[in-house]
Amino acid sequence: MTMLSTTAIGAKFPGGAAMDVARIQRQIFDDGYADEFIPAVMHWLPMRPGRERLLEHVARFIPFLDAIQRYDREFGDGELKKEILQGRFAGDFVPRVLHWLQHRSGDELRKFPEFTDWFEAVRGYAKTFGETRFLARAADVLPVAYLSVENYRVNSDQMAPVETAVSKLSDQEISALFDRDPWLWNLVMSMWEYANGKTRLTTYPWNISLPIADICNARCIFCTSWLEGRELISLEQIDALDEAIRHALYLGLVGHGEPMAHPKFKEIADKLSRLIDRRATLYTITNGYFLTSMFEQLERLNIMSYSISLNAASAAVHEEVMGLGANGFEQVLGGIRKLIAYRETKNPDLRVYITMVVTAQNVHEAAEFVRLGNELGVTEIWLRSLLPQSSHVPGLNYHLLPPSAHPEFKTHQAAAIQAIAGSRVPVQADPNAWAMDVISPMLREEVRRNPPALIHREDALRDRKLRMQSAHLYKAERTALQGQRRNDAGTIVSMSGGELHIATPAAPYSFAAEIAITRQLGALEGARSPSLNIDVKVNAGIVGIGVLDSQTHQFTDRKFIAAGFDGVLTLDLPSDVEAHLIVENGDEKGGASQASIRSMTAVAQQPEGLLGGLRLRAPSQSIDLISHLKIHNPADPLDDGLNPLGRTPRLACRAVYYNLYINEMFFRVNPCCYMQNVPGYQEVRFDGSAKFMDVWNSPAFIDIRTKLRDGPLYAACRRCPEKW
């Protein structure tokens, strides 16, 4: 191979002409670097805007970058294409760039004219040999897999062909990858285990969410973490997760509070910076108060995504909503500006998001918040809606928070919509949702008839008993519940707010609706013989209504009723676990059926002194109840009646292979935010006392993976918005 001269290239390198360029060339082209280094750099370089910004971070790569580019310019595209098409590194390089090309438009590619020859050579290679050539052996598959891993969160559909290819890798190919790159091996092997339906894993999850702190220095009026949060992750617990952290593709520094309020955050940051692979992406959610004081640690961690809860466009409203002090707003803005400056000068891939939870106290600043985000130059602006509440909430004066309570709500809503339409920065918002009353009609009426005393933040902090009860918001209703303590039996809660209309398709065993019945305030603990009275009318066909024990997946009671039935149906409930009311088509011949449920009332015999309640999660006109309705999807498997409830198809979820969310305040382990809604899911906790792989392969996770592989897994898992 022809070598470049020292005089032609040496002046550009640190060390000048004295540098051994011949040695560099040998390292690139003759000593194996071409197989791994050149493809990585040539893929990585054009994806970053502004090469000059990068040199500070990649000083050790300058000789290689310049050697590659000068090789291109000095010898022309003919020699270059020859190296690509015939050189031994073509098998590694071509798939990477081809994959990249497929996800970039022509306009984007024109920004990088110096790489035109490389792109054209790749297109020529693909045209000559076909894309299937790239998936023929490990040298071709793995680079494509690696790039798909990087795009995993953007579009998980890209994973399917890669998983198919990876599933065909031999043990020898997998072993060879482990010797070369254990981090990449973990990602590829994880796909291999998923694609082959393994239930006991040897790989670590890709996406790890660490609950750094549940304490918080803010006093947000819509949040209770500052009232209840006490949990802090320990250095010992991080040590117990060290291998999982080493293999993470995404690592979140989160919690129910402020991560940087952890008294040992600097030590945690130092430890994590030594553990993580430099190819991993770190993200955090913060109120921004400590951004400036912790900047050195954050820079060392190389956090790539900041979601900053700002919630205001002025200091006065920021203090009212978040309680971070008179200077808190300017301190947070200073930290945001520091991040933006860092992005502009050193890290162009840094993403900075600002969020506002829209309430009656700040809706008048929603439009100005959008303008502020544009002025700051953030990556994206999020205007979030309050979550509906249908039960006791240990929060402060929640009934005063809905944006619609502001006397000029419609004016401010219209101004926000106009600001969003004119924003240069992308805005995620649903202004129509701001008009929704987050308090249920039943509780709203209770508040109207018995206005609760308003509790100040500082009073709540001083008096633990005050903040841990909900009397400050629903005093009268709680008194009514307490009155049941003296009764041997009584109605706990009932469905209200209009009829629930259910129609099943004309198909045997089709699933119409699933209504989750969950315990609230320890309702059924110690209860005897609970039952559910359902006022129902069957309009057509045959309807099956049953109660399913969420642990055994067996019906505790089940009845079939035909058209003409109009009355109360009583079903027995399991006494100590979550149950699911299943409404299904009972016509074995597959005829359609229709029914209307007018009300549901849960009744239980309770021991003396027990306070509790049931919560029915059902589709309803009223927001008293948290809705969850699954209409039968014809694509759901119905193999010979073995899957009568429309359950999740085999291997339709990747979460229990790729994700680990250690969330909640007691380190509850979930593969995703929704996994606890799957009937039969057993709660798993990780506190560092056991080996991580023992927890990751605990019976609960193996059971979920087995259901994914063999079926059936309930369709409740399909609530996941990412469809992982």
What order do the helices and strands come in, and which of them pair?
Elements: H1 6-9, H2 21-30, H3 33-44, H4 51-54, H5 62-86, H6 90-102, H7 106-109, H8 116-129, H9 138-150, H10 159-166, H11 171-180, H12 182-195, E1 207-211, H13 225-228, H14 235-240, H15 242-246, E2 250-254, H16 265-275, E3 281-286, H17 295-301, E4 303-309, H18 315-322, H19 328-345, E5 351-357, H20 366-376, E6 380-384, H21 409-421, E7 427-429, H22 441-449, H23 457-462, H24 464-467, H25 471-483, E8 489-494, E9 500-504, E10 511-520, E11 528-540, E12 542-549, E13 555-562, E14 566-572, E15 579-585, E16 593-605, E17 613-617, H26 655-658, E18 659-663, E19 668-670, E20 684-685, H27 692-696, H28 699-710
Parallel strand pairs: 1-2, 1-18, 2-3, 3-4, 4-5, 5-6, 6-7
Antiparallel strand pairs: 8-16, 9-16, 10-15, 10-17, 11-14, 11-16, 12-13, 12-15, 18-19, 19-20
Helix pairs in contact: 2-3, 3-6, 5-8, 6-8, 6-9, 9-10, 10-12, 11-12, 16-17, 20-21
Structure description:
By secondary structure, this protein is of the alpha/beta class. The protein folds into four domains: 23-196, no CATH class; 207-473, Aldolase class I (TIM Barrel); 492-631, Jelly Rolls (Sandwich), CATH 2.60.120; 654-719, no CATH class. Helix content is 37%, strand content 18%. The strands form three sheets. It has a ten-stranded mixed sheet with strand order 7-6-5-4-3-2-1-18-19-20. Strands 8, 9, 11, 14 and 16 form a five-stranded antiparallel sheet that branches. The protein has a five-stranded antiparallel sheet with strand order 13-12-15-10-17, with no helix packed on it. The two termini are 48 Å apart. 39% of the residues are buried.
